[in-house]
Design brief:
By secondary structure, this protein is of the alpha/beta class. Helix 2 crosses helix 3. This is Aldo/keto reductase.
């Protein structure tokens, strides 16, 4: 697979590369990814995190990555990304930029904050956060997504929200949603039925496969599919890889994260798969996924890693903010 090859994201006019870069882990000092103490060290000041984010963005751009994903709740990630785009002289439209609304970052740049983000999927929140996002990203914004939509939240039936999203699409910004939890498939089905959305961003990995059929249907319906958490917040990397994954990686001369990402890249419905790297070394390791040959034997060999979705999401919820 050509890591630099551009392709359309579903029915949108947006062009993406097979691997994109998600900024959840580099826009704020604390996050739930395993190994952050080793990866980031003690200096998590704003300047240090900005330098890290810019170095990562430089490396991704040089490698040909052309989709970048952020959110209002990712601390200063939107600001870091906006500053980098302008400093490097990257023209609007040269990369596809996606952001999300619905969570607010409330961690105060503290590691020991009681809460790091608060969710509110209301029309008022949409208006406030869209204004904040546009103040930073302006004409770079290509895609705006509801952050962690669920059927139970009611956001998919909120007329005020839907009217504003329709208006935003008329302004040539694609509309999407991200999903979360053991009932992702139900949310995806509701999004397809609504006809409102251009893209869906969901968790799929070797542990959590429960929404695969729903994502295939979304792809068939013309939605662009973005896959997040492909290495399960570090559980599918060398730090914690199950024996079967580690062995498969050794046989191919790559790291476990590369095999985990290759599993997603092999799905015909996957439009773009996000790397959540926090260092250039991790990014380089992730990028080798495009050279991993995926076949039926490997797929069957690793099928046993799948967990019950309730178990997977309970495990994820227990990860500490580090």
């Amino acid at each position: 697979m050509d890591a630099r090859a551009l392709r359309p994201l579903g029915r949108t006019r947006l062009m993406v590369t097979p691997l994109g870069l998600g900024l959840a882990a580099v826009g704020r000092p604390a996050y739930i990814t395993l190994g952050r103490a080793e990866d980031l060290g003690a200096d998590r000041s704003v300047p240090a995190m900005r330098d890290r984010a810019w170095a990562l963005l430089d490396a991704a751009w040089e490698a040909g990555v052309r989709y970048f994903d952020t959110a209002r709740s990712y601390g200063m990630a939107e600001e870091f990304l906006a500053g980098w785009l302008r400093d490097r002289g990257i023209a609007p439209g040269a990369a596809t930029i996606g952001s999300k609304w619905g969570y607010a970052y409330v961690g105060g740049w503290r590691m020991d904050a009681g809460y790091h983000e608060v969710k509110e999927l209301s029309a008022g929140q949409l208006r406030r956060q869209l204004e904040q996002t546009r103040a930073l990203l302006g004409e770079y914004l290509s895609l705006y997504q509801i952050h962690s939509a669920t059927v139970e939240s009611g956001v998919l039936d909120d007329e005020d929200v839907l009217v504003r999203l329709h208006a935003l699409r008329a302004e040539h910004v694609a509309i999407g949603l991200s999903t979360t939890g053991p009932r992702q498939a139900r949310t995806i089905a509701r999004a397809i039925e609504s006809g409102v959305f251009d893209t869906v961003q969901s968790t799929w990995n070797l542990f959590e496969r429960s929404c695969e059929a729903a994502l295939a249907r979304a792809h068939e319906a013309g939605l662009g599919v973005i896959v997040k958490e492909a290495v399960a917040n570090g559980r599918l990397t060398a730090r914690a890889a199950p024996a079967a994954l580690a062995e498969a990686a050794r046989e191919r001369g790559v790291t476990p994260d590369a095999v985990a990402l290759a599993a997603v890249l092999a799905r015909p419905w996957a439009g773009v798969v996000l790397s959540g790297a926090v260092s250039t070394a991790q990014l380089r390791s992730n990028l080798t996924a495009t050279g991993v040959e995926w076949d039926q034997e490997l797929d069957e060999r690793l099928a046993g890693l799948a967990e019950d979705p309730e178990t997977y999401w309970d495990t994820r919820a227990a990860l500490s903010w580090r």
